[in-house]
Amino acid sequence: MLVKTKAIVISSLKYQEKSLIVKCYTQSDGLKSYFVQNAFATKKNLQKTAYFQPLTILEIEANHKNKGTLEHFKEIKLATPYQSIYSNIVKSSIVIFLSEMLHHCIQEEEKNDDLFTFLETALIWLDTHDEISNFHLILVLEVTKFLGFYPDDSESFFNFFDKNEGIFLPFQGINCINEQETVLFKKLIHLKFDSNQKIFTGVDRQILLKILLEYYSIHLDGFKKPKSLEVLKEVFF
Asked: Model confidence at 236, in pLDDT bands (50, 70, 90)?
């Protein structure tokens, strides 16, 4: 079936010498993987490989056979050309980290228009703003809404957050983060992309990222810590 849709590049993997396997999160069909033959064969094709950088937003026309095999692009163009993401070391480090996160946590091939719209809107925001220190933390937490394990903050007046249950408790159970960490986590829950970026120190962000990765590991089978985590730490600390 011929499909026209927007797609966010999640990952690209070189196959043999000249080809690529590209995983995209599409607006029309959710997660899809595509085979790009001879991507490195000519200068013209080599230019197109720039389309497959992490979290690029594309407009594609593709043949979707929906048989569990690799699909094929018919036409590709940039939906939203980024102005700063790939030229800014902090932003590029963020998108590499986030693309790895999404690669490990979005597994099912199913349409989720709300998740696509959220990711697209967030990435455009990142590209057009300079105060972005907490962007990755907010996005990683917000994505849990779409994956089904966003923290229940109805009793966030309690002092301890239980990572296993995703709830706040009045006592520190075995699966709880400590009181100081819970204070930071509550602040993050109420944060927006355009909130004051100086609400957290570098150490605070490191603590929160550790909590979030542990939270993902508990609630997603087979979740792997991104390899780019150390690069992200170097950028922010």
From this structure: low
